[in-house]
Amino acid sequence: MAGLLLGALVLGGCEDIYPEVVVVNRTGEKILLRNASFSGCLWQQVLAFGESSSPGRCLPGEDRVHFQKLDVGSYCQQQAEDGTIDGVCACSQGQCLPADSDPDLVNERPLWFNYQTVTSYRVGYGEFHLVEITCEDWEQDFSVPGPYGH
Fold it and tell me: Is residue 54 part of a domain?
């Protein structure tokens, strides 16, 4: 019985030696990130500019941070151009332009595009890593199904 208890304590303490990782959105004020993942960790949350994920215990090794990105500024501009927001229209030099988009082609739901960091991060047992995602260090992530952004 004592051996079983000792084994349970040892196995329960193993999680504490896994690397701890935090992801921070350092991209831009109009860019949201969600569903960041890294080496076995998944943060199912939306990170606004400057926000960070909760610490996650990840598997040791090397990986890139995978995430979905929404450029809120571009999305709102596209919605204004498509005329999908009541009272808001695309403007040029103070003159409102008519929305000439085909209503069947207008997508009012924002598309979150798949990206990953260019940099691979190596984490080891017992380490803590703060990973800051920046605009200079991302690329489209073709390792997962679309949609793919521009």
Answer: yes
Which pTM does this prediction carry? 0.73
- Residue 136 tokens, joined: 């200079």
Per DSSP bridges, beta strands 20-25 and 128-133 are: parallel
Q: pLDDT tens-digit profile of 28-84?
A: 999 999 999 999 999 999 999 999 999 999 999 999 999 999 998 887 777 666 665
The span from the CA of 116 to the CA of 41, in Å, is: 14
d(CA 59, CA 148): 27
**Domain total in the chain:** 1
What is the three-class DSSP state of 6? helix
Residue 47 lies in a domain: yes
Residue 140 reports pLDDT greater than 70: yes
Domain extent for 63: 16-140
- Rounded to whole angstroms, the Cα distance separating 127 from 74 reads 38
Q: What is the pLDDT of residue 7?
A: 47
Answer for the pair 69, 26: CB distance below 8 angstroms, yes or no: no
